[in-house]
Amino acid sequence: MALRKRTKTGVVGIVAAAVAATAFVAPARAETDRGTDRTGADRVSADEHPGASTDRHHRATRRAMEAAVRAGTPGVAAQARDARGVWSSAVGVGDLESGAPRGKHDRFRVGSITKSFVATVLLQMEAEGKLDLDDSVERHLPGLVRGNGNDGRRITVRQLLNHTSGLFDYLADEEYSKTYLEGDGYLTHRYDTLPPRKHVAVALSHKPLFEPGAKHSYSNTNYILAGLIIERTGGRTYEAEVRDRIIEPLKLKNTVNPGNGIHLPEPSSRGYAKLFPSDPDRIDDITEMNGSQGWADGDIISTTGDLNRFYDALLRGRLLPPKQLKAMKTTVAVPGAPDMAYGLGLSRIRTSCGTTLWGHAGGMVGWLSMAYSTEDARHQLSYSYNADWDGESMGAILDAEYCG
């Protein structure tokens, strides 16, 4: 799920805004990675080991994280990997009620980063001869995408994965947003189980935005359909395919599909949202929610370390043959975002200093996250906010790591 940012006039996509906002943040006093506890004594990072990347090489990143907390985000957790080793850091709080600090190894809802996992599974299936990217949606989901000018016979699997299908984003439906994303509606329905086809039905109640293939427009509906194609092709659940093809082979021990579960596995921080536009200072703890409300467009729970491990394997060709990896990195332009292009579940962005990165951003009610890497996977950064209202500051952390 890509979180929809609430405004007085409706909802707008947050992912492009998050990755495009790469202005560097003014420096602030930073603790070292060893840091000090409240008594002033040294505390050693859980990731410190011989050869580990030292904090002085990531001071700009730490300062940008601290700036996000000063601006109002409760806490930020991050992990970078480069030639020096692994650096993990966390700032701010993980629990506003108790004041407990944000943990470096917290599990969190990754939102639309899930799309990279889904696209990888479908590309593996293509490599196995089970489907073709240019198959129609109709071939795999006969009769499902019909009505209001929508026609699955004219939309390909490739167009789902690169968001050129023209299908309406179900999260942008006003009634759906009021019921499941905002205010009392969210608080009332956060534990509801929502089957994927409900999301599809919401989208198909709207006319398509444009002819298939005409341009890019980010739509979570595309990845609901991609998940259904995985299930139809593999004869198993989408979750089982992700587990057996990616999570277990890569030993992503902190990564799960929650299914209909509502809890975050420990260790984790609390997640926070501003659900009421009429009361912008109100903050609600929304940590618990039914995982089916994201599903294949954004349900995965993971950690910064596991996300780095996943993108490392993906970009180094451990998950896909060269043909499929090339297809994944074949991009289309993103309107209004000149420094961003979108492939198949994978985005390409350019920082302010010209560094090209591959990965994805994600938003879920209560959470924002980003995971990006150089193309050779030699320098990676993943990080998470335990709140959903400040997507614009996220790019500053990315820029600080690669340009600071």
Helix content bin: 25-40%
Q: What is the global morphology?
A: globular
- Following the backbone from N to C, one meets helices and strands in this order, namely EEHHEEEHHEEHHHHHHEEEHHEEEEEEH
CATH architecture: 3-Layer(aba) Sandwich
The top-level CATH class is Alpha Beta
Helix count, DSSP H or I runs of 4 or more residues: 13
Pfam families: Beta-lactamase
Protein name: Alkaline D-peptidase
Keywords: Signal
How is this structure best described in words?
With 404 residues, the chain is of the alpha+beta class. It has one domain: Beta-lactamase, CATH 3.40.710.10. It is 29% helix and 17% strand. The protein is built from 13 helices and 16 strands. The longest helix has 14 residues, at 114-127. Residues 30-50 have a biased composition (Basic and acidic residues). Residues 1-30 form the signal peptide.
Q: SSE layout and pairings?
A:
Layout: E1 4-7, E2 10-13, H1 15-20, H2 59-70, E3 75-82, E4 85-92, E5 108-109, H3 114-127, H4 137-140, E6 146-147, E7 150-151, H5 157-161, H6 174-180, H7 183-189, H8 196-204, H9 221-234, H10 238-247, E8 272-273, E9 284-285, E10 301-302, H11 304-315, H12 322-328, E11 332-333, E12 340-342, E13 347-350, E14 356-364, E15 367-373, E16 380-385, H13 394-403
